[in-house]
Design brief:
It is built from 1 helix and 7 strands; from the N terminus they run αβββββββ. With 135 residues, the protein is mainly beta. The chain has one domain. The protein has a 5-stranded antiparallel sheet with strand order 5-4-3-6-7.
Length: 135
């Protein structure tokens, strides 16, 4: 596996199940046992009801582009060759929204409402990033 020089997400006890699932090619998010709220944040308590009881729910990986933006400024040297690059907010069919990248098409081809599906990019032996492609 070639060296990956872009910033990597921190992995801790709360987020590890998400990253383990991504390595296995699955999209999982915490779902509250009390109110069934699905969330994309890795917190101990449900933001809707305050419960600390949750399961990791396997999701379809399908959604739509809710918003997107092109970054023209270099915030990290490792992204210099990618400028301009796109970042999207994807609303999953199950409700939560994830910030990610849309791959497989030129940045200009991404529109709000574009149907997408999750793909998994193993960038290191420990981290597989969840990205999306048009479906």
């Amino acid at each position: 596996m070639p060296a990956y020089d872009k910033p990597l997400p921190p992995i801790d006890e709360l987020s590890r199940p998400f990253w383990d699932a991504a390595r296995a090619g699955e999209l999982r998010l915490p779902g509250c046992k009390a109110c069934q709220h699905l969330r994309s944040q890795f917190e101990r308590w449900c933001p809707r009801c305050g419960s600390d009881q949750f399961d990791w729910v396997r999701l379809s990986g399908r959604g739509t582009v809710w918003s997107h933006v092109a970054f023209h400024r270099m915030y990290f040297k490792s992204f210099e060759d990618d400028l301009p690059y796109g970042v999207a907010l994807v609303e999953l069919e199950e409700g939560p929204r994830l910030i990610s990248n849309i791959v497989g098409v030129p940045r200009e081809a991404v529109d709000i409402g574009t149907p997408v599906e999750a793909v998994f990019d193993a960038v290191t032996s420990e981290v597989t990033l969840v990205k999306f492609r048009p479906r």
